[in-house]
Design a protein that fits this description.
The complex is a heterodimer.
Chain A lengths: L8 E6 L5 H7 L9 E8 L3 E2 L2 E2 L2 E6 L3 H16 L2 E9 L1 E3 L4 E9 L2 H18 L2 E7 L2 E4 L4 H8 L3
Parallel strand pairs in A: 1-6
Antiparallel strand pairs in A: 2-8, 3-4, 5-7, 5-9, 6-8, 9-10
Chain B lengths: L1 E6 L1 H7 L3 E5 L7 H9 L15 E4 L2 E3 L10 E5 L6
Parallel strand pairs in B: 1-5
Antiparallel strand pairs in B: 1-2, 3-4, 3-5
The chains are: A alpha+beta, B alpha+beta.
Chain lengths: 157, 84
Amino acid sequence: MTNDATSHVGLSVQEADFDVGAEIAALSASRRDVGAVASFVGLVRDLNEGSGVSAMTLEHYPGMTEKALDEIIQQAWQRWSLLGVRVIHRVGRLEPADRIVFVGVASAHRGEAFAACEFIMDYLKTRAPFWKREETPSGARWVDARESDDSAAARWQ
Amino acid sequence: MKVKVLYFASLREAVGTSGEELVLPDEVTTVGALRAYLAARGEGWQALAVGRNVRAAVNQRMMGADGAVAVGDEVAFFPPVTGG
């Protein structure tokens, strides 16, 4: 294998926001073999399950969350021919329009970048220990897991 | 057998604590047995009862009901994940 996964993989769980442009640029900075960078940004919406959402708080399991994300990235790295992966997930209190998650994947061609980006998001949704608690006009509530997320992850098996 | 048990999200609220050090009876050696043992504590702890939608991790790896629990392990219980 010519790619060394450890030197081109970045993973952060943080309260701070991130700069999407800078993250995308970093995936191909000072290299000439990257032909494609695919990225995904997840945002807080002001509506969920029919009620308004004024804010949400993201809880995680320090230690396990990072391990689970690393394992997902390693699986993507083995499955596709990738040149770089960057995953950032925010925790703490977020408001509508705030960024929650960034996944960026670099490869030689678009097919692998698109597929790996979607795979990482689908697995993150069902395997990485994060929990959302929403603030709505009728009080705070924990977000329920969706079956559609399970079926999205299952199609990669 | 001494273990560390952690609770997250709605489960933490249901049981009223984020974690504890526990000395388990000899017969509690699996995730499923530990859930049943904890659920027997009473009201809020019923959230851990077998049949409830609870995920478990042992030493930060997801485990099913038959996953082994050994001395010194860190066992965590939480609802299905909702990140991303």
